[in-house]
Amino acid sequence: MPLTMDPIAQPPGPSERSAAEPLPPGALGDDEADARLAAAGDRGAFDRLVLRHQDAVVNAAVYHLGNREDGVDAAQEAFLRAFQAIRSFRGGCAFRTWLLTITINAARSYRTRRRALKRGGGRPGFSADRARDPGERPYEIADPDTSSSPPRLLERKEVKEALERAIAELEDDAREIVVLRDLSGESYEDIAAALGLPIGTVKSRLHRARLELRGKVARFL
Length: 221
Prior knowledge:
Blueprint: E1 3-5, H1 31-39, H2 43-65, H3 68-85, H4 95-118, E2 139-141, H5 157-169, H6 172-183, H7 188-195, H8 199-216
Antiparallel strand pairs: 1-2
């Protein structure tokens, strides 16, 4: 069942097509071309990027936060941030890696707000007033496809839940690398470029994170 996304500010030259309407044949082109079009004000191009990567974005946020409801909220914020920052994408890494890095940062911000509000019993949900155009139409993001998660362990429900908890318990830097590499399948080169790190640092952080995760789920192996 689709999930309604809160309004996102619209750049000049908006598309009049509703996000719920099907895209025309051949509309799903390559990311860099759509990113360039979106940066120039083509709303339809950004729609295509959302549809193409919504599963990866929601899954990354869910694994980073360890909770689906929070993850969907963080994914909504990530798309808002990406929309507002689209002109800054220069193609130094794959667009999806750039988008997932934004997603992880949005999830971190969400986690900080959640901790701050925990004592008050509130939830740090996506804030609609952060969108600049109150009349902007909503996006819809579909339920994520968890069948594409790389680890074979995820085939068993109890192991999946244990691994989700273990990932959520990692330090931020380690969790970021695991989400980008092992859960999203991004290349070492793209991760290094997106995070501004040497490839060796990315690999060493990933190695340490994998060892920690293995220890946490060892009883399931």
